[in-house]
Structures are given as structure tokens and as C-alpha cells.
Amino acid sequence: MPVSYASFAIAVELTLAAGGLVLLWRVVFSAAARAAPRPAGLPAWEVSVADFLTFLVLVMAGSFIAAATAGLVGKALALKGSAASVLNGSAAQLGMLAGVVLHRRRLVGSALAPRKSWRGVIVAGATTFLVAIPLLLATAHAWEYVLKLLGLPAERQDLIGMFAEVDSPALLAIMIALAVIIAPLTEELVFRAGVFRYLRTRMPRAVALLLPAVVFALLHVNWHTLQGLASVAPLVVLAVVFSVAYERTGRIETAIVAHACFNLNTLFIIFSGVSL
User: What is the pTM assigned to this prediction?
Assistant: First the structure.
């Protein structure tokens, strides 16, 4: 990797972090931000317990059935390594999305109503992404220190190795689409527009923010090898930021755009070969 390219990538990330710090001050901690009235952006999701449980069952069943089917297909085609992982991951995400679609009640309700232009949604999503960066960097380093103190694996996921194994442009394109389009859409509809929106009016706000965030983060860990354990705390913070942005804007698209920006930036870091 040429030094100039790595230096450019580091400069980009530091610029994003600096911009995030400025925005974090302006939209969260400044006197004007604290004095501004909270916009009532997110209406309650008025569904019964039975409807909510049906939603969860459909999402989990969709993911399990699709992943199991993909596993059988992968074995029949003798797929291994990244190809098998991509097939299983894509199927699980699409199965979850199918569960959302199959749920009879409209999940996001008025959250998708055209109350704000798409330009506004993109700006809000990009702002959310930038605000999250300095929080994530601080959390990641602190969490890594805690894991080392506890004698637990602190290595980050070997995403570089996974992408390096891919020798097919088509497979690489699918992996990028999965990371930047499918995963943000699916996970935000499930965890933010579904679980968080349901819990926020039925239990203390802190619990509603943290519970789906913790579940979201734990699902990204390989519990056989503990690979991904280093990502738990940063992902909890990221999920909470997405939920707050969704709550403030009333648009699930804000969280989807922010999530897509985060995953796209992660890919940029992976391909640049730098470590932050």
C-alpha cells in the first residue's frame, strides 16, 4: 500500500472526526442546542404486545429459514470461505427484511411520510454519521483497554482478510451492496423502527435506547471464537446515536443513511489498509 494513499486515508478520517467534534458541540452540547426545544418527531408505535411479538417472530424466523436454506445451497454448490459467508449473510439479512414486509401492520407508520425532503434526510443522516465518529473512536479505545485488562480478546474483526480472500468482482460487488444497502435498511427497520420505537413509550427511555443497542451489538460477535468482541461497546454507542437521530427527526431514513455512511466509511478504511 503506497504511503501516500495511507496518509490520505488517515487525513480523511481525522478530518471526519474533527468535523464530527464540531457538529457534536453544535447540535448536542452547545448552549443553543441545550436550550432548543426537542422536536416531537417520532410518533408512538401503537401496536399490541401480540402484534409486536408477531413482528419479532417473523423477523427471526425469516432470518433463520433464509440462512438455513442458503447453507444447504452453499453445500450443494460446494461454496467455501468468503463466498459461503456472503451467501449466508445475504440470506439472513434478506430473510429479516422479508419478515418486516410480512408483518401486517405498517412498521414505520408516519415515519416515512414526506414531511422532509430527501435532501434534508441525507443531510440529517450524514450529520448523524459525523457526530458518531468521535464517540466511536473514544469508545473503541476505552473498550479495547478494558478487554485487555480482563484478559479477553481485543482484536478487531478480520474484515481485511475477508475482503482480501475475494477474487471475484461480482462477489465483491455483492459484499459492498450487502454492507452499504441491505444491512442498513434491514437493521434499522428491525432495531430502530421496530424494537426501539415499540419500547420507547413502554419503559424508561434509557432502557429503550440501550436494550436494542446491546442486542444489536451482541449479534455482531462470533461467540465460538469471540471474534468481534472488541466491537461490542462501539456498536452499542452507534446504535444509541442512530436511535436518538431517529427519535429527533421522526424519519427512519435518517438512521438508514447514517448507517450506510458508517458502513461505507468502514469499507474505505478496510481498503485503505489503515488502522485507527
Answer: 0.90
